[in-house]
Structure formats: C-alpha cells, structure tokens
Amino acid sequence: MTNKDKSKYMEGMGMEYRKFADTYYIRVDRDDEIISSILAVCNAEGVKSAIYTGIGGCKEAQIQTFLPETGEFETRTLSGMLELVSLTGNVVSGGEDGLSHHTHAAFAYKDGDAHRFAAGHIKSITVLYTAEIELRPVIGGIIGKQYDPETGTGFWSFEA
User: Fold this and answer.
1) Is 37 in a helix, a strand, or coil?
2) Cα(13)–Cα(31) distance, integer angstroms
3) Which of 78, 121, 141, 145 has the smallest number of CB atoms closer than 10 Å to its CB?
4) Predicted confidence band at 154 (pLDDT cuts at 50, 70, 90)?
C-alpha cells in the first residue's frame, strides 16, 4: 500500500490529509479555504478539540482586530501573493456546527518595492499554491467554549 492509498481526501475539496500517531497532517490545495478545511477534518475524524500550526502560500486573507470599546471586529482583506509565515490556532467544542476556531496568523507580502507584514485574528484564508497544517487533537479530554458577557467573546471552558 502506498502513502497515497493511506491518505484521505475530502469530497468537494482539494485537500489531502493523513494521520501519523496522534497528529493529522493536512495539505490544503489551491483555492481552498484553510479554516473550513481544518474544521472539515475535525468533523470527519471526530476531533472535538485540538491545536494547529501551519505555513503556506496564500492569495487572500481576512484579518480581524477586536475593538474592545465597540465589542466588534474590524476586518481587513489582504490579496495577492501572501506568504503565510505563521498560523496558530485551536478548535474547541461549542460552535454552530459543534466546533469553533480561534486562529491567528502572520503574512509577509510585497507592496510595490516594499516588503510588508500583517498579522492578527483570522476569519478566513484562501490558498494560492499550498498550505501545510499540523493538527494535534487534545488527548484525554475536551476543551469547550464559554461566553464572556464582559467582552462579548468566548474563552476556553474546561468543564466540557
């Protein structure tokens, strides 16, 4: 059996993933969205909470900044060749489909002759070439999400 025979593919998505020991390795392909791909693997594999990291070549990212004074997120969309130099986040139980994510990322890109950098909370990221994600499920428990009325956001709950 070849490595390709052991890999798993998601219907309707270009990504491929494989599990080694307790860790999933996900390759997200051109035009696929990274966060929905991670959540799709979690749903397919029954992962209720996890942490993840990644790198890649992307073409669009929606970066958000939380504004405490308004309780709202301000969203900025970056487009073009975006080097995803760092992606880190978590999946917890308690979202609309049973799971929610909290993701931050940093991107390097060119703006004319200048090299730029942008980072923050992530709403979505679309792949240009590929993205490589390491997904590590929580072992021996489940992390949930609890609502914080003061900030209007959610935080980890260890009672799930």
Assistant:
1) helix
2) 9
3) 141
4) confident
Rg, Å, the chain Cα set: 16
Q: H-helix or E-strand containing 40?
A: helix 34-45
Summary count for the chain: helices (H), strands (E): 2, 9
Token pair recorded at residue 77: 């969309």
Residue of 32, 77, 88, 25 lying closest to 57 (CA atoms) = 32
If phi over 0 gives left and psi between -120 and 50 gives alpha, with beta otherwise, what is residue 106? beta
Q: Is the pTM of this model over 0.90?
A: no
Burial bucket for residue 41 (CB in 10 Å: 0-12, 13-18, 19+): buried
Q: How many Å apart are CA 50 and CA 28, to the nearest integer? A: 18
Residues 6+ apart with CB under 8 A from 139: 22
pLDDT per position as a tens digit, 89-123: 999 998 666 899 999 999 999 999 999 999 999 99
Distance of alpha carbon 68 from alpha carbon 152, whole angstroms: 9
